[in-house]
Amino acid sequence: MPLSQRGVAVPAAVGAALAVALLARSAARSAATDASRIAEHKHGMDARRAQHQDAAGSTTTAVISNAQGLELYLRQWVPTQGLRVCGVVVMVHGFTVHSGLFSGVAQHLAEQGLAVVSYDQQGHGLSDCFEGLRGYIRGFADLVEDAVQVLGWARSQHPGVPAFLLGESLGGTVVLSALRRESVREEVRGAVLMAPGIRVSKAVLPPWPLMPFLRAAAAIFPR
């Protein structure tokens, strides 16, 4: 069946070919834009790290690569004045903040002999973003993998001492999910949860008929 465009009959095959060409051109432009955004983000992040003066008072900083190839920015507070490290605490922050949130409590714990390791979750602070999009996370499981990796890094820095986890808000949910793994439970002595996100109250959920539509829309348009 012919297609009509501005009064001119166009064979269906030609119309389909034009549509495919337009879609391909749009995809190419989108890919170029994504590549440019990622490059700009990477350049800017490297510059920010190089110029960063740690206002959080951490003793040292580090950068590690996660399973996705994203760089995670770590802060570490360690006991000073000759105090022996008697334990290590890994702290996981919530959504839209960064590891500097724990500065006060981390410095206090370091004064008591505890080493503290915190990190900017992917998409936050000085850590890399997926496709250069701040705050965008492909999947919650990625955050859990990051937490487990940082826990392993912290234990390698301070072997032979008890390890603890602390999570705030979204970070609390990440910690809870990590603790579902037997291997993690065997590595830590305990955990502290600060307002963890466990479930959403029904009072604030959209009406049920809308939920399937929203889930489908999120799957099709995740960003």
Automatic annotation (TrEMBL):
Transmembrane recorded as keyword: no
Keyword Signal: yes
Keywords (A to Z) from UniProt: Signal
Any Pfam family hit: Hydrolase_4
Signal peptide: 1-28
Family annotation (SUPFAM superfamilies): alpha/beta-Hydrolases (SSF53474)
Stretches assigned to the Serine aminopeptidase S33 domain: 86-222
Lineage: superkingdom: Eukaryota
Protein name as catalogued: Monoglyceride lipase
Species: Tetrabaena socialis
